Give the backbone structure.
Amino acid sequence: MSRIYNFSAGPAMLPVEVLQEAADEMLDYRGCGMSVMEMSHRSKVYETIIQEAQADLRTLLGIPDNYKVLFLQGGASTQFAMIPMNFMKNRKAGYVVTGQWAKKAFAEAKIFGEAVELASSADKTFSYIPDCSDLPITDDMDYVYICENNTIYGTKFKTLPNTKGKNLIADVSSCFLSEPIDVTKYAMLYAGAQKNVGPAGVTICIIREDLITEDVLPQTPTMLRYKIHADNGSMYNTPPAYAIYICGKVFKWLLKTGGLEKRKEVNEEKAKILYDFLDSSELFKGTVEPASRSLMNVPFVTGDSELDAKFIAESKAAGFENLKGHRTVGGMRASIYNAMPVEGVKALVEFMKKFEAENKHA
Ligand SMILES: *Cc1c(COP(=O)(O)O)cnc(C)c1O
């Protein structure tokens, strides 16, 4: 067996231990005589799987009792609509637009009410996080929305916005469980699993209880009401059962390997190796303002699109997969989520050094 280093932004690498355990349990889950894929989500066995996943996630993140954890479907993108449908009671909310995903959420909110752009970094191709210390938030806004880590552009909020007492809602899809956070700073945070915690198909929403009410916008479909899912323990209908099972294994792996403090340490180490190289390189350069750099997604360019293409082709041949930048920005991007080992980043930097030596004077 040979596993390559996969720098995909998502679906992305998962810990080998998790995949191995899932493989071992594939045909016969702990004496049940069937796979988790084949079992009723209402069975005792599955109930234990989903309950343990939730309990382990609560431990990892230190989620207070007054927050609900929901395992939903429809990807992170469905949240772009669910959030305004459930929370835009005054039909007005503020959005900080720092990239493609924030832009999409902002556009979706406009379907339901007045979405106000509080700040944006579109003027410099989303290469920085705007100052959010004094946003034009008004009293009638229902919430303030951010995308905390911008997967495509490689920026991350280092401090949360001053929301002036308004509820903060954050899309944390690409930085979820990459470091410890204070959940109480958020009214809601959510993440599509396929970036940092599991397979595609499940979106994890963590919502302060008092926000989950029946008072939603008229004509909100049943499946798009948080209260329905909260009241039914994420089992109103069939949940993405197998995806939740794998996420549960990832949570256990995180707990076993030192929790989120340790993850932060390792993720900072990995990011430093790559950013230090980019800062010293004469060929490659990072595209993000140093103060806004993401720990998870690292975009870079050579400044020459032909050389970028050559690098992508040669790196792929050398066993470094998915380094091509997002189709909307070009260049390269290395996503170095939790499951990417330090050795993977070191090997990439060695490869980049070699490529630089060979191509510097081309
Ligand atoms: C990938 C991504 C999304 C979209 O996720 P889907 O599950 O494909 O809908 C939304 N937000 C962020 C930050 C992402 O990285």
Remarks:
- Residues 259-359 form a domain with the Aspartate Aminotransferase, domain 1 fold (CATH 3.90.1150.10).
- The chain has a mean pLDDT of 97.
- The first helix runs from residue 16 to 24.
